[in-house]
Design goal:
Helix content is 34%, strand content 21%. It is an alpha/beta fold. The protein has 2 domains: 126 residues, Leucine Dehydrogenase, chain A, domain 1 (Rossmann fold, 3-Layer(aba) Sandwich), CATH 3.40.50; 135 residues, Rossmann fold, CATH 3.40.50. The longest helix is centred in the last third of the chain and has 16 residues. The chain has a 6-stranded mixed beta sheet with strand order 2-1-3-5-6-4. A 6-stranded parallel beta sheet has the order 9-8-7-10-11-12, sandwiched between helices. The chain is built from 10 helices and 12 strands. The chain binds NADP nicotinamide-adenine-dinucleotide phosphate (NAP).
């Protein structure tokens, strides 16, 4: 990679950030497509988001991805927000404007692609979502658009989940140990907490084997480690489990398009999938 005085700087803010594969993906896109960008990780503690964005803007950082725990916190510092991201209340992509950054959410596109990987029509089926944080909004949005009949939303803090999603008519919020209320069956399940990565490797948000009898197909949005404890428990109970690498890949493609105006070619997407995501 050759960096010149004209190279545009892109990056990602989050905490933790060292697990992120976004730098590998975006730098691969740049190299394969011949676009003059470089993408770097920026570890950022909560409370410093406003200062970080002001500094990045002053330094002409052309675009930033945003990961946990900042997807909501960045909103108040933006110059503008895409209506879809505003409706979701979470932003994961910032594009530099003259006055600041405009926020977008590319997780919707990424999660749609992830589900398509199952090659299953989920219309009319029920789904279980674990977690009610920043990424759960896009996930529930996609499940609604795919016309799933009911969504069982399990969260550690019930009040938080109620506040965000309790108004949706076909969403039932339960505590994590409330899963026994979910009718038995082989449902689609999406794991949207950070439990299973970093300091919690080897743990799952629900460890009772009785829960896993209710799962047919599952996605853990964590992509490092490659197999989380949640995925292992799903497989042990006879279900099919994927990690979140495909979502990461396709949300990155969409972010890169927003940052640069360049649509990454299908050949490069395939190469990135093999090189970085092993999908
Ligand atoms: P977030 O906004 O910080 O939300 C975290 C969620 O996890 C909340 O529901 C929280 O529950 C729950 N949680 C945290 N610690 C827990 C614990 N010890 N036990 C049970 N629940 C716990 O995070 P996010 O942005 O939604 O991201 C969530 C996960 O998705 C992360 O692992 C992230 O890496 C992954 N992700 C992957 C992709 C991808 O492309 N594959 C994209 C986006 C996100 P409370 O409400 O009780 O705090």
């Amino acid at each position: 990679m050759e960096i010149s005085g004209r190279t545009r700087v892109l990056g990602i803010i989050g905490d933790p950030i060292d697990h992120s594969r976004s730098p590998a993906l975006h730098n691969l896109f740049a190299k394969a497509e011949g676009i003059d960008t470089v993408y770097v990780p920026f570890p950022l503690k909560s409370g410093n988001v406003g200062d970080a964005l002001a500094g990045a803007h002053a330094l002409h950082v052309a675009g930033l991805n945003v990961t946990m725990p900042h997807k909501k916190a960045v909103i108040e510092y933006l110059d503008g927000i895409d209506p879809a991201a505003e409706a979701l209340g979470a932003v994961n992509t910032l594009v530099r404007t003259e006055r600041g950054y405009r926020g977008y959410n590319t997780d919707v596109v990424g999660f749609e692609k992830e589900l398509k990987g199952f090659q299953t029509d989920f219309e009319g089926q029920e789904a279980i979502v674990i977690g009610a944080g920043g990424v759960s909004g896009p996930v529930i949005h996609v499940l609604q658009s795919m016309k799933l009949s009911h969504i069982w939303l399990l969260n550690r803090t019930v009040e938080k989940a109620e506040e965000k999603f309790g108004h949706i008519s076909n969403v039932t919020v339960l505590p994590l140990d409330g899963f026994r209320e979910i009718p038995e069956g082989r449902h689609l399940c999406v794991q949207c907490t950070g439990v299973g990565m970093g300091a919690s490797i080897g743990r799952a948000p629900i460890e009772d084997p009785g829960f896993y009898k209710r799962i047919g197909k599952a996605v853990d949005l964590i992509y490092s480690p490659e197999e989380t404890e949640f995925m292992r428990l799903v497989r042990e109970a006879g279900g099919e489990a994927k990690n979140g690498l495909e979502m990461l890949l396709y949300q990155a493609v969409e972010s890169y398009r927003l940052f640069t105006g360049h649509q990454v070619s299908p050949e490069t997407v395939e190469m990135a999938g093999k090189a970085v995501c092993d999908v």
